[in-house]
Amino acid sequence: MIAKWSIIHGDNNAMALCGRALSPKAPRTAQRAVPTKGLCCVIYDALYRPLGLALVLLTGLSGCVGYRLGSTLPPDVKSIYVRVFINKSNEPLVEIDATNATIAEFQKDGTLRIVSADDEADLLLETTLDGLTLTPLRYSQADKAKPNEYRLTLHASLVLKRATTREIMSEASVIGESTFAFIGNLTSSKRAAIPLASEDLAKRIVEKVVETW
Known about the structure:
six-stranded mixed β-sheet, Double Stranded RNA Binding Domain, 213 residues, 2 domains, elongated
């Protein structure tokens, strides 16, 4: 007898497809699925062996790509309190946009639960908006000295602490960016771009926090 092994995801449809692809002429009784403790299952086809090793490597890798292993946070870290950002930029009220966007991003990510008070949290996040900069990207055809598109960048620094001990777990600098067309008034055009930059900043903040572990 010659045999072949392959590794794929352990769902019935995938196993059926694998069985037909590997041995289209083999009866179903010639195949058996062996559940494992891992993420995949092993399909044993009792008709082929020559390409077994190659199939283990190839189908094993492709079958398991994209599987999310879950959070690596310590078991006692489940919640976070996001303090209102400190605004040291020259842009008024930008801290409100950035704080709300970060809370929303944590809720979307789902790794840490947002709480409304620091005494309810496992972690505290303190963030300072250090500045807001505008970078010209394109210029008017009629006036080469007049930009008509800008990149807006929010610069921030964060400190992540244990809520009970105030031990600093990590510190980092992050940025959030967006682009906007200069139409009419620069102040209003810039203001319209701040929410998108805040959302981008929030995503990077959440990544930094989760990647601490």
